[in-house]
Model the fold of this input.
Amino acid sequence: MTDVALPLVSFESRTTIDGEVVRSASTLRFRERLEIETDLAAHGFTTVDVRDAPDRPGKELVFIAQAVPLAERLLTSGAA
Done:
């Protein structure tokens, strides 16, 4: 890790390919459950279930979402 400024975590890795060292710098953004559910809804999905990741209980969420049919989205937005 090179920096932690929640919700952002930056890190760097190095890989050697054919004797050449290749550096990679990345930043991950960890979002809260409500923010993810709000974004899913804004993009036409409904949250069906939220579960713990089976291999990391309590550390990662898995969202089960379903696309809301366009006709239903239009009705609820008042655009119909």
Remarks:
- DSSP finds two helices and five strands in the chain.
- The first strand starts at residue 3 and ends at 5.
- Strands lie at 3-5, 8-17, 20-29, 45-52, 61-67.
